[in-house]
């Protein structure tokens, strides 16, 4: 009689990975609400499995509409011995049948199968998630990139991975222009990487994406912070005339002023301040140059008028356009030329 199959040993300790460096394993959990990063992580695992075995059999299941026994059926060895890749989406809405089958599978995963599980967040299936982590399988946490510093790091990494150069100012301009949605930001990086003959500078970013609402907002803010009231107001009126919402325009002003205020109150070298504030060193250096043109009173006055404009454009005023224009005028005239 054949000897009983010995279960494959599992990793001894919990293992975290990023969407950029995750590698195939018997079980891989891709968690978190950021769909774009989740897709990139799953694409990476799939590409590596296919590179190692071009004949791999790929099966996709949905945990919310899962039929009992489907997992065992799809991971079972085939007559021709192809490796199996099973991708399961929708774990955040998993039904009880999937939970039971997945927990059973974790105890004895198939040696020639890779099971990739996508959980979009929430508490549903916590018992399974805990079992995966306790088993030491790779776990990728895909959280939204909310801070500009994280988006700047993302863009920099995209260009580095493609062995292409992008100027720091161009990185900032790109995040300002298309940073509202990560998938759009990634697509913009891919477009620039494909089209740029050498490196990418801010002029190229402006040529491609300067018409975006986010870009227009920061053009207004840049002109106001430079003390150029005529340019700031004409850019603002053009932005409003082409459909820009006053809310992101005020948000751009507030973002610039917050950066100045943080740097103005910080002590140490630019690299030390960058570490303290979680900012890029070049952004700190830029803010240090800009803050020299401001008096403390002028900076406080500008922050106050921007806070008032923020409240007004969000419903406290019947004339949000005037509120933005007033804020831009006060900021531009508070700068020492």
From TrEMBL:
Source species, domain of life: Bacteria
Entry keyword set: DNA replication, DNA-directed DNA polymerase, Nucleotidyltransferase, Transferase
Residues passing through the membrane, by range: none
Annotated EC: 2.7.7.7
A GO molecular-function annotation: DNA-directed DNA polymerase activity
The reaction(s) this protein catalyses: DNA(n) + a 2'-deoxyribonucleoside 5'-triphosphate = DNA(n+1) + diphosphate
Domain DNA polymerase III delta subunit-like C-terminal: 215-328
Family classification: Belongs to the DNA polymerase HolA subunit family.
Identification of the protein by name: DNA-directed DNA polymerase
